[in-house]
């Protein structure tokens, strides 16, 4: 599951922003939580020079610096303070995101903030706070989901404080996945469009997919490429499964049915769709020999969880198509993406739809593992 796009703005600490917003307690926890992460971070060179740093961690830190240099040199991603520091956190996620959707829709509830605009999630540095909000939303009639986030981007706004750090929550990822994450988060520093989560996340996901394909293609990464192929093939199979389920749910929730289903019929169709999804997952898991990475997500899947997935998947093929139309040239791709971002949202969406259709005529994407 790609849950790497949570954006917590360090600028929320600025008093003028806080005083202008009614939800100061939430913004304060965001700023305070981020600054605590920054305070825990030390330069990678210090960790490497510390005799108490485990050898395995030193190897991973060295690998991250190779990945970062590749991102700057080959992918033309920002060369700044980010990912040159490391923080050891005593928790399994750095942030917990809360998403919510109505009982018969996959459209996420949105929250609006200074600087970042409106987004379809609310992030907390304390898991208990996230779960408390989810419970409150459920009491109001929403379907809510809480998921841990291993990394987030401050969009470059905290580079003056040392940049976004490497974290213990993802440092142990397989090499290909670690590269993907770094590429994804750095991509958020290239471009961010207010009030368009799907655009932002799909763009960053396209960069991570194309970038990781280039990283793993190098001869020296042959072992990692082989290991990653199995991992990513399973992810793509699960992605296809959830995409099909999402289409089924969207068809059920469509408002143009004639005649309109009764509430009882609508509930029955929804229950059947979720049952079918879970049965299909059980078959997929059996084919994997019991690989259970997605068990927890499937067990708690609801409209909010499916709605959150869409933000990462909706326009990925369109952005990959745009990359190829620019001759696989990274600076040209970023320039074309900025031009796309400058369009009014209706025009932007129409152009993405056109690129999406163009992508269907191309060969399968070049990322490893069939992505």
Task: Give a description of the structure.
This protein is mainly alpha-helical. The chain has two domains: 6-223, no CATH class; 231-370, no CATH class. 56% of the residues lie in helices and 9% in strands. The chain has helices spanning 15-19, 24-40, 44-49, 55-73, 127-139, 175-190, 197-217, 222-253, 263-287, 295-299, 303-313, 316-325, 330-341, 345-360; strands at residues 6-7, 41-43, 85-87, 95-101, 111-113, 117-119, 122-124, 143-149, 152-153, 166-167. It has a three-stranded mixed β-sheet with strand order 2-3-10. A hairpin with a 3-residue loop joins β5 (111-113) and β6 (117-119). α6 packs across α7 and α8 runs antiparallel to α9. Residues 1-22 and 363-371 have low confidence and may be disordered.
Beginning-to-end CA distance, first to last residue: 14 Å
- The proportion of strand residues reads 5-15%
Give the total of beta strands.
Answer: 10
SSE series: EHHEHHEEEEEHEEEHHHHHHHHH
Q: Give me the secondary-structure category.
A: mainly alpha
Helix content range: 55-70%
Q: Spans of 5+ residues with little confidence (pLDDT < 50)?
A: 1-22, 363-371
Query: What's the rounded overall pLDDT mean?
Result: 89
Largest β sheet strand count, sense and barrel closure: 3 strands, mixed
- Count of the domains: 2
Computed over alpha carbons, the radius of gyration is 21 Å
Q: Number of helical segments?
A: 14
Shape label = globular
Strand order of the largest sheet: 2-3-10
